Amino acid sequence: MEILVDAVLLTLLVVITLAILFQRNLFAVVLLAGAYSFLMASIMLVLDAVDVAMTEAAVGAGISTALFLATLYLTHGKEYLQPNFKFQSILVVVLAGGMLIWGMWDMPEFGVMQAPLHENTAPGYLDASKNHLMPPNVVTAVLADYRSFDTLGETTVIFTAGIGVLLILRGRKKPKKSKNKAENSHET
Amino acid sequence: MKHDPILELGVRLALPFIIIFALYVHFHGDYGPGGGFQAGAIIATGVIMHVLIFGLEKTQRLVPPSVVEPAIGMGVLIYIASGLPGMLFGAGFLDYSIFGNDHLHAHEWGIFAVEIGVIVTVCSTLIAIFYAFAGRAKS
Amino acid sequence: MIDFGEILLKYNAIVTVFLMVTSLYIVIAKGNMIKKLVGLSLFQTSVYLLYLSPAKIVGGTAPIIADAIMVYSNPLPHVLILTAIVVGVATLALGLALVVRIQDAYGTIEEDEIFRAEGDA
Question: So what's the ipTM on this one?
Answer without folding.
Answer: 0.89
